[in-house]
Design goal:
By secondary structure, the chain is mainly alpha-helical. The protein has one domain: Globin-like. Helices cover 64% and strands 0% of the residues. It is built from 7 helices and no strands. α1 packs across α6, α2 runs parallel beside α4 and α2 crosses α6. The longest helix has 18 residues. The protein is globular, with a radius of gyration of 13 Å. The N and C termini lie far apart (31 Å).
Length: 133
């Protein structure tokens, strides 16, 4: 998938008014995801993405451990949007990411994350304890 197509899909799914807004939230979401993944997984994921998105995964950083609620909070702060909106928009970015990478890569990503992250990727319904509600 090409970068322009990726951002256009995020715009459509996330209900953004402009491509710039969609790009800003895409950056915030992918940068936050990169903080949660191992270096090897970041490199594997970057290999399947357009060059404009690769940079978010190839920055040298240590892997951090944080809950899904913290993921959404980081996206909210980085994109300067309210928490509830960050949840919706991050999920839109991940929906497009799911389409952009191979199923095996998606499984590798999910294997590094706690089960609650399945919600972010549309793999797990929102439950009563969900940070999305």
């Amino acid at each position: 998938m090409r970068y322009q197509e990726f951002i256009e899909q995020v715009k459509k799914l996330g209900g953004f008014e402009s491509l710039d807004e969609a790009a800003k939230v895409t950056e915030a979401t992918l940068e936050t995801l990169s903080e949660r993944l191992s270096r090897k997984e970041r490199e594997d994921l970057a290999a399947q993405l357009p060059k404009e998105l690769k940079e978010y995964f190839l920055k040298g950083r240590d892997t951090e451990r944080f809950l899904l609620e913290d993921f959404y909070s980081r996206v909210s702060a980085r994109a300067a949007v309210r928490y509830h909106r960050a949840v919706e928009q991050a999920q839109a970015v991940m929906q497009v990411l799911r389409e952009a990478v191979s199923p095996g890569e998606l499984e590798d990503i999910l294997s590094e994350l706690p089960d609650e992250y399945g919600e972010l990727f549309g793999r797990k319904p929102k439950g009563p304890m969900s940070p999305s509600i």
